[in-house]
Amino acid sequence: MTQPPAATNPPPDTPGGAPFTVRLGTWDVLKADASPVRVAVFVEEQRIPMEMEWDEADATAVHAVAHDASGRAIGTGRLLALAPGVARIGRMAVRAEWRGAGVGRALLLALLQSARERGDREAVLSAQRSAEAFYLREGFVARGEPYDEVGIPHIDMVRGL
User: pTM value?
Assistant: First the structure.
């Protein structure tokens, strides 16, 4: 997979205006950066068991990682092919101190653009209910009833591409 150019800094209205970049790549290339973010957010903060965080889908996913100006990984997400024309976004995680700074949005937009470029027409995700408003602002709509996953309330969401 070729590496696209890094995203530009966040918009000037981003809280703090701190610069960061977003990079897309394979798990082999981005695992060392994505893994510590996922451990910090999912395992340590949300108490999801370590063995439930990793799966075989990482090997085939397109991964996005955001880095701060010093090169530290501050956010991550992944993109899978759920079905022909349907992208599945998951493992969206942003370090606590960077939430609200546009990192999640930049990661999401990079993954959605990657899905469009490969010809997907729809994106789906399983949103934690605490992040539902974030996804609504990005054009996703809830589909189905809320459910529990690893002890955390979730809702399926979808949007066209």
Answer: 0.87
